[in-house]
Write the structure tokens for this entry.
Amino acid sequence: MVNRKELTPDASPQASFGARLRSSREERGWTQDELGARMGYSGRHISGVETANKPPTRRLAVSVDAALGTGDQFERAWRELTHGVLLEGFEEYLGHESRAAEIRLFESGLIPGPLQTEEYAKALADASVRRGVITPEQAEERVFLLLERQAALVRTMAPMVIAVLDESCIRRPIGGPAVMASQLERLAEFADQPNAMLQIAPFSIGENRPFDRLVNLLTLHDRSLVSYVESQTQGHLDRELASVLPLVRAYHQLQAESLSRAESVAMINQARKGTQ
């Protein structure tokens, strides 16, 4: 016990997770090596998580719950930890999105999350790892959270999803030709769904494009409106009608300037040929 490091659970959500893990392990009288062996991890890895030197992953959290018989306690703690690093307002937005009657999306430069293929999302996450922005474990969890977000939209009363994408979304190569071809095919399939509407805002509309960044608009089942906009470092959720309505009007103007569904699919298919 000479090398035992004192923990400070209040230092961060990650430190709190580590302290909870140590406490639960010691209640059972297990060493780090013994717990690690039950989970398929090394004792050194368990030590790193307990001392907040290694970020916990979902796989680790699920393995902890299975080894300790704690239900989903550690998986829920992982979710809280992961959501805690999301941009301000985004976690609350996701809660509304998962229950919305209608979802309007606008994006420039990248395919919006709900329409991304797993391979496209992985390419973006892996690029963040190479730039040193996130760890490989965080990249894995970023993709997992995206897939969860997509799964929440597949329900009995499926929402109407309206997506207007700047032409740059389908022109910007992400992940190489094969990944991009699959992503464009996914967009064409999305456009054929009965609860979907897809339009491309072509470069030719120039200064008439009203948005320069991501804009999401929700219509909830009580007909109230929610907007979510994002900058590089901050997200903003808004339910005030006076500030949401101008965004709704601008979105309608954007749709009027954009290509029809048939024209949009034709442009997507043309872009697909360029990836082959």
